[in-house]
Design goal:
Layout: H1 16-20, E1 28-31, E2 37-43, H2 44-51, H3 57-76, E3 83-87, H4 98-105, E4 111-112, E5 117-119, H5 130-135, E6 140-142, E7 149-157, H6 161-172, E8 176-185
Parallel strand pairs: 2-8, 3-4, 3-7, 7-8
Antiparallel strand pairs: 1-2, 5-6
Helix pairs in contact: 3-4
Length: 189
């Protein structure tokens, strides 16, 4: 196999050299309208070509490597006892769920609650315009128990509407969202 970026021979889609140089995380924090803090590891423009692999078989491996390279070091610095992760809408549609892949990469430090937050609306936001994203709600159903401390997991924060809606559903169900983790933030600073 060849590295997706430099084309060097590699056992994985992204070679160790690219992970430690080109893909060095540039962590940032964004506060959404409802006060939810979202931590991201990359600017969208830095890894957009890799994020677009999410609709391919290779994407599962790419997302796993990016998560272990960028988000896992951050999670290791936290005290995560009795904290759970909730991957947003981790329904398998294209062979795997990108949010579940990210949550799985963190599982040794923060236990994932798979299938806990699913959208009734099957609309895909990928590539949709801002007005469509704002108008069409995901209509989430939360199935985990109450009084948990959780971290929401998604791949990209664009408008923040999905995370805001997920946070609201959790709040109404007495689930405390501490913050959200994403690979990339589409809002360039």
């Amino acid at each position: 196999m060849r590295c997706h970026l430099c084309l060097s021979l590699s056992w994985h889609p992204l070679c160790p050299i690219c992970l430690s140089t080109i893909l060095t995380p540039t962590p940032s924090k964004r506060v959404l309208e409802d006060g939810l803090v979202v931590y991201s590891s990359y600017k969208y423009s830095e890894i957009s070509n890799l994020l677009h692999t999410k609709h391919t078989y290779l994407g599962a491996k790419v997302f796993s490597q990016l998560s272990k390279n960028a988000i896992l070091p951050y999670i290791k610095t936290l005290t995560c006892q009795d904290i759970f992760s909730i991957p947003i809408d981790d329904h398998v549609r294209s062979g795997y769920s990108h949010s579940a892949i990210i949550a799985k990469a963190l599982k040794d430090y923060i236990e994932p609650l798979y299938g806990s937050l699913r959208a009734k609306n099957k609309l895909r936001y990928s590539g949709q315009k801002l007005d469509v994203r704002k108008k069409e709600k995901r209509d989430f159903i939360l199935t985990c128990k109450e009084n948990l401390d959780v971290v929401l997991i998604d791949d990209i924060v664009t408008t923040g509407n999905t995370l805001i809606e997920a946070n609201e559903v959790c709040r109404k169900a007495n689930v405390n969202v501490l913050f959200a983790l994403v690979l990339a933030d589409a809002k360039e600073r």
